[in-house]
Amino acid sequence: MRTAGLTRKVKQVVLVALMNQPCSIPRTVPATKPLLLSRPPSYAPPSAVTFTTMNKNEEKDHLDGVFKQKRALRTRVRKALKAMDSELRSHEDNAIQSNVLESPWFQSSRRLCAYISCSALREVDTSKLLSEILQNPATGDNTQSGKRLYVPRVEDKNSHMRMLNISCIDDLVANSMNILEPAPVDSFGNEREDGLAFDKSGRRIGRGGGYYDTFLKKYQELAKARDWTQPLLVALSYSLQIMDEEVIAVTPNDVSLDALVSPAGVIPISQAALERMKL
Question: Which UniProt keywords apply (predicted)?
Answer without folding.
Answer: ATP-binding, Ligase, Magnesium, Metal-binding, Nucleotide-binding
